[in-house]
Design a protein that fits this description.
61 residues; alpha+beta; Alpha-Beta Plaits; 4 strands
């Protein structure tokens, strides 16, 4: 699985990092993906973070 953050949409709230810090980290005022590809054991957390993003900036494939 791959995770993506749309920096044009991201508001830097940090929700994704709180939910899944193994995959997402705030860098400046935007979230970034730090695990490429997402490890199997972190896929559920990445999915939860994507669903929890208040602006829908995270996509998974």
């Amino acid at each position: 699985m791959k995770a993506f953050v749309d920096h044009d949409i991201c508001i830097g709230c940090g929700q994704c990092e709180m939910i899944c810090p193994a995959v997402f980290k705030l860098s400046g005022d935007k979230a970034t993906v730090i695990q490429k590809p997402v490890a199997t054991e972190n896929e559920a957390g990445a999915d939860e973070a994507a669903k929890g993003c208040p602006v829908g900036a995270i996509s998974l494939s």
